[in-house]
Amino acid sequence: MGQRSPNANNGHKLNATEHYQRTVTRIAQIQSHLNNAPRSQRLNDKTCIITGVGSLPGIGRASALLFAHHGAHHLYLLDFCADNLPELESTIRQLYPDVKVTVIQADAADEAAIAAVCKRAIEEDGRLDVFFANAGIATTKALPDLTAEGFMETMRVNSLSCFLAVKHGSQAMMHVDPSKGKTLCGGSIILTSSVAGLRSGAGTVDYSASKAAVNSIAQTSVYQLQRTDIRVNSICPGLIETNMTKGVFDFARQRGRGNKLGQLNPLGRYGLPQEIAQMALFLASDESSYVNGQNLAVDAGLSASHPVIPGHWA
């Protein structure tokens, strides 16, 4: 039998209803943050590429808006589906007329497309400073139902896209053009991974394997890019409400269990795309200039512990 932890919380503990009400309030605060936050120049003069921006409740779109809010010079925004790209372009132009924005319908795992957008950034802006490889897919098939073709498609979309971002993004970041204000090579490459890539229990076999590969790409590539001042890091989100997780959220809410979403992490709630975008902004900015080769979990503490009964040692 486990012993009670001396660090157990003996203070006031919210009941389920109180905690859910607090969660709803906190979610609303996070969602409205951009409306109230002052603009800054954290990404001043930076030319940025972001993939996977098409989903309205997605991490890519949230990051594009946040990058614009913080002074990015030019945003090249890519998605496999063109449906929502015009709306995103017009929104950024309306809210941030000083930010250049170019939307492109392209497959993030298509080498020709990725090489082309990196080349275009050099031709048009003389520099590339940030590549946020965010595009990806989620899968639901259990091991007996997963085909070899399905496994490889997940690896193609989730892992190959990140490899291409590192390969072609880093090459573009080595380009120096003093007339454009870039006198030294360098830049930040950010890869969207998942807590499923850190350990089992957060995704299917193919999805988890693809995200583990992304984490390895981040760690391995920095030693191929030594002394270039090009940094590569991955972000490992926990349970975030996006189109990719819509099935999970719909299933819980249809059964009246929406208050249970995210209950396994210490904060006891799910996350929002804006919270992942904030980590991407940090990694894109010069504030993270000494952060390199890291797999950064943004998961409310989910991956911080082995399974544990609160108040007891395992």
TrEMBL record:
Name the keywords, alphabetized: Oxidoreductase
Q: Under which name does UniProt file this protein? A: Ketoreductase domain-containing protein
- InterPro entries xref list: KR_dom, NAD(P)-bd_dom_sf, SDR_fam
Q: Which family does it belong to?
A: Belongs to the short-chain dehydrogenases/reductases (SDR) family.
Task: Identify the residues that the record assigns to the Ketoreductase domain, covering every copy.
Answer: 52-243
Q: Does the keyword Oxidoreductase apply?
A: yes
Under the heading Pfam families, the entry gives: adh_short_C2
Under SUPFAM superfamilies, the record lists: NAD(P)-binding Rossmann-fold domains
